[in-house]
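Morning, I've got a small favour to ask if you have a moment. You're getting the sequence in one-letter code plus the fold written as tokens. Thanks so much in advance, here it is:

===
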Amino acid sequence: MAISKSKIAVGLLVGGILTVVFGTVLVFVGPIIIDDQIAKNVEINPKNEMSYTMWKDIPVPFFMSVYFFNVLNPQEILNGEKPMVEQRGPYVYSEKRWKDNITFHENYTVSYKEYRQYHFERDMSVGDESDVVTIPNMLVLGAAIMMEKLPYPVRMIISASFKAFKETAFLTKPVGELMWGYDSKLVDFLNNYFPGMLPSTGKFGLFAEFNNSNTGLFTVNTGQDDIRKVHKVDSWNGLKKVDYWRTEQCNMINGTAGQMWPPFMTPESTLPFYSPDACRSMELVYQRPGSVGGVPVYRFVAPTTLFANGTDYAPNEGFCPCRQSGLLNVSSCRQKSPVFISHPHFFNADPFLLSTVLGLSPNEDDHGLFIDIHPETGVPMNVSVRLQLNLYMKAVSGITETGKISEVVMPMIWFGESGYIDGPILKTFHTNLVVMPAMMEYMQYIFISLGLATILGAVILKTQDKRRTQSSTNLTEKQDQMDDINEPKASSSGSERQAEKYVINDSEKPM
């Protein structure tokens, strides 16, 4: 039995309305579903096998590029002239990071130690680790500042010990030894008679304490109870705050451990993190949107106030005693050694610092610090953290090795730690975080458009059926009218024929 077009139109109308409703619901429910899936996948949970493995054993290739400021005029510096340096590098090291001693707690936190290991990459470097450079001798010039307030006779004894061990104000050694340590009788002497003065009891090197080491015991939130807290530091080495600085605010341990942040960021968000190497919390600010391999990102950079002194930025007063803006005095957490951190080439620093050293040329592209982060997940896609180590040095009476050195913050080395997501991981990110949400968004409007088209088709079909029915009705009515008109004529003709018959019959009768 054929189905009437009217019933088909009703069916299409109902189906169209339901399709529009479904598409409209997707418009509002779709983002909620996506956000819920993101929240479940970014929390630190062993059940999330892929994301947990990425958090535990970071699969992203990390590299540390090191640049030395080779001193060109060491003797002239001792005579009071302005230092002149040339940048030598990069010397590139691949960096492997992994977490160990992982312990989950009942309060939705997890403790771990993150280890790091470096391997020299000759093909990516400008030269070999055997290349020789000249830099300030921290053992001599650093110790001179640390001993400056001791009695004059003690300073003379210190100077005599430098001479005995043949230590001078400037050190010329291979890159590898300066990085990872070299044997020194002076180091042995200082460790024996001034324990705690040096950061390590073995070989002395700028990064000797970094290789095959960990950054301390971090306890962070898993986000299982509140996704807004995921990765945020609960404590570091059991501490809720440090005691290196002069104010409670500066001693606070804020933000994350610097690897991931809570999801659902906006341009108003910031990236706070605690850095054990800098002994303080830092915060990056939003700069601009961008993309990495087709994945949308927000770029966060260091604000100009990050290393500003207390005069230029009052909240930083707690990090003082300060010198010019652009320097962070880390002596309070580095055995009182006069070491300062800055951006490379004194980028974003007080111009006075540039005027005291020849050979520096700062620019944002080469020396700026940034993190490109996917705002929906809080996962960094491209990272470049660049910092410079500087030594405050000057002539100290009684220590003849310092000569007539003018007071200066001397660049020694700068390094950039960089990492980026690529390959299969980037493809997975692009598929799950760009393609799938886009498909869901398209599906929303496809359902709405299809539903509206179906409703329109139902209306057209119903209209056509109504017109066809009306036309058929009109035709039937006209036929009935014609039949009504033709019926009397037929009756009249019959009467006439009957009458005629009677007449004929009458005429045939005999007279």
Remarks:
- Residues 507-511 have pLDDT under 50 and may be disordered.
- Residues 66 and 415 are 4 Å apart (CA to CA).
- The longest helix spans residues 423-507.
- The chain has two domains: 1-60+438-459, 62-420.
